[in-house]
Input
Amino acid sequence: MKVSTKGRYALRLMLDLATYNTGEPVTLKDIARRQDISEKYLEQIISMLGKSGLVQSIRGSQGGYLLRRDPADYTVGDILRVTEGDLSLVDCISPDGPDCDREAGCVTVRVWRILTDAINQAADSITLADLVEWNGEQQKLGDYCI
Output
């Protein structure tokens, strides 16, 4: 499985919302500037995240976007599944994939299931709160000098 730009940017967008979570809406313009991502592209991603119920849109001059839940209640898997669909490595084991005539006698299908399960388990074990913490650690390392 290869995560698309949309998936990577969605994760960065959600991390930005979590990092700058003061209770006030965060504008896409500010996220675009901090993340160096096109505001137009972020509009497409935020629309998907909004429709899935991960973010809340606040309209008006003081509007923007907020997380609907605490960062600890979001997983990387939740976010990636919105933009990438299911995280299956191959179509033949995807819930929406085509039926495979060879599945009954296919040994490699076990490999794909084991690998896909490992990816899902890893993605579901990392929360947005973890990313905020790791980002803070990274910032401290970046500020360190001798």
